[in-house]
Write a structure and sequence with these properties.
Layout (H helix, E strand, L loop, with lengths): L6 E6 L6 E6 L1 H7 L1 E5 L6 E8 L2 E7 L6 E6 L1 H5 L2 E5 L6 E6 L1 H11 L2 H8 L9 H16 L3 E3 L6 E6 L2 E6 L5 E5 L3 H8 L4 E3 L16
Parallel strand pairs: 9-13
Antiparallel strand pairs: 1-2, 1-8, 3-4, 4-5, 5-6, 7-8, 10-11, 11-12
Helix pairs in contact: 5-6
């Protein structure tokens, strides 16, 4: 039985939203006993520990629920070209483990997951304009993925709540709130110009309704 000498893994930091990649082999992990793989922001870390012969635990920070989850990594995990670890509370994919090429392909597919979810649900009777909301959520996902959704208090862990006419943002640290309206074509044009969203920043107007409706 051939075990891959080295595998790649990737996780998205729940604090800054950036992707972190790492490489590890079972032999190095056995030799070290414990390895840490922090995000470059320094606010979250994947921890791997040897618990027995070819048996390991991996602790992953969860971008979905904010907790840390522990998974057991046995021989089968090292043999497979792709493993996906999910949040036990939300079933959200939080860590990709295996061959680098397969990981990158899986993550590309994962970027479409939110689109498929929104398309599969009947939001027409809930949102003021479901198409505008769909585009707004995609834009917010893009901004967060670049680490550009945060609060001026320094926290990057922002709760996102979908409302009929927009998206409410709440800082999980200081509880500051912002609101991005997503109910009209004019709202969509405003959203399209956003590259950074910082709660409590007076320069931004994410919590202010445009004076006049458009579209």
């Amino acid at each position: 039985m051939l075990i891959n000498p080295e595998i790649t893994f990737a996780f998205r930091c729940p604090e800054c939203g950036k992707l972190t990649f790492g490489d590890v082999s079972p032999f190095k992990l056995i030799g070290e006993g414990r390895l840490l793989f922090p995000c470059e922001c320094g606010k979250s870390t994947v921890t791997m520990e040897a618990t027995g012969k070819m048996d390991f635990n991996i602790t992953v920070p969860c971008i979905a629920c904010g907790d840390y989850h522990v998974y057991n990594i046995g021989k089968k995990m090292w043999l497979s070209s792709l493993n996906i670890l999910t949040c036990p509370k939300t079933d959200y994919k939080i860590c990709f483990w295996g061959n680098e090429k397969d990981i990158l392909k899986s993550m590309e597919d994962f970027d479409l997951q939110l689109d498929n979810v929104l398309n599969g649900l009947d939001f027409d009777n809930y949102f003021k304009n479901s198409e505008v909301m769909y585009e707004a959520v995609n834009k917010l996902h893009e901004i967060a993925g670049k680490g550009n959704l945060y609060c001026t208090c320094g926290n990057h862990n922002i709760d996102v709540l979908l409302k009929p006419d927009g998206i409410e943002l709440i800082c999980k640290s200081c509880h500051a709130k912002g609101f991005i309206y997503a109910g009209s074509i004019k709202d969509l044009r405003s959203i399209g110009g956003l590259h950074t969203i910082a709660l409590n920043d007076p320069i931004l107007s994410t919590n202010k309704r445009p004076d006049k409706e458009g579209g």
